[in-house]
Design brief:
- There is one protein chain.
- This protein has two domains: about 90 residues, Arc Repressor Mutant, subunit A, CATH 1.10.10; about 50 residues.
- Helix 1 crosses helix 2 and helix 4 crosses helix 5.
- The longest helix has 26 residues.
- It has a two-stranded antiparallel ribbon.
- With about 140 residues, the protein is mainly α.
- The relative contact order is 0.10.
- Strand 1 and strand 2 form a beta hairpin.
Length: about 140
C-alpha cells in the first residue's frame, strides 16, 4: 500500500470515527446524561481501552479536533457522572463555555505571575503574537 493510500484510508477512518462520536453523543443530551470516557471510547473504536491514558488520548484528540471545528461537545469532570455530552439548551452551553473561560483565565493568570507581568499585559502580548503569526499555543 502506498503512502497516499494509507493517508486516504486514515482520513476515511477519522471521518467514520467523527460520525460515530457525534452519533453516540446525540444519545447523551444534557449534563445529567454525560457519557463516561470508557463507554464513549468503546462506542467510537469498537473495542475496550486497555490503557486508560494512552488509548483514550485518541478520543480526547478527536473531541478536541471537532471542538476546533465548532462542534459544541461539552464535558464535565465529576468523578461520578462525569464525561462528554451535548448541551440540552442554550443556558447549558453558556454554562459550559463560562466554565471553560474561567479555566483558561486561571491558567493565563498563572502564566502572567510566573512571567511577572499583569494579566492584561500578557493578553496584549499574546494578541500581538497572534496577529504577527507567532502563535506558540498551536
Amino acid at each position: 500500500m502506498t503512502i497516499q493510500e494509507k493517508m486516504r484510508e486514515q482520513r476515511l477512518e477519522d471521518a467514520e470515527r467523527r460520525i460515530r462520536l457525534h452519533s453516540n453523543l446525540t444519545s447523551h443530551i444534557g449534563r445529567a446524561n454525560a457519557v463516561g470516557m470508557a463507554e464513549l471510547y468503546e462506542a467510537v473504536y469498537d473495542r475496550p481501552w486497555e490503557n486508560r491514558i494512552n488509548d483514550t488520548r485518541k478520543l480526547r484528540t478527536l473531541v478536541t479536533a471537532m471542538r476546533r471545528e465548532g462542534v459544541a461537545i461539552c464535558s464535565t469532570a465529576f468523578s461520578v457522572g462525569g464525561g462528554y455530552y451535548l448541551a440540552a439548551g442554550g443556558s447549558e452551553l453558556k454554562d459550559y463555555l463560562r466554565r471553560t473561560k474561567v479555566q483558561a483565565l486561571k491558567k493565563l493568570a498563572r502564566v502572567a505571575k510566573i512571567q511577572r507581568v499583569s494579566l492584561p499585559e500578557l493578553l496584549g502580548q499574546m494578541r500581538l503574537e497572534m496577529e504577527n503569526g507567532h502563535d506558540e499555543a498551536a
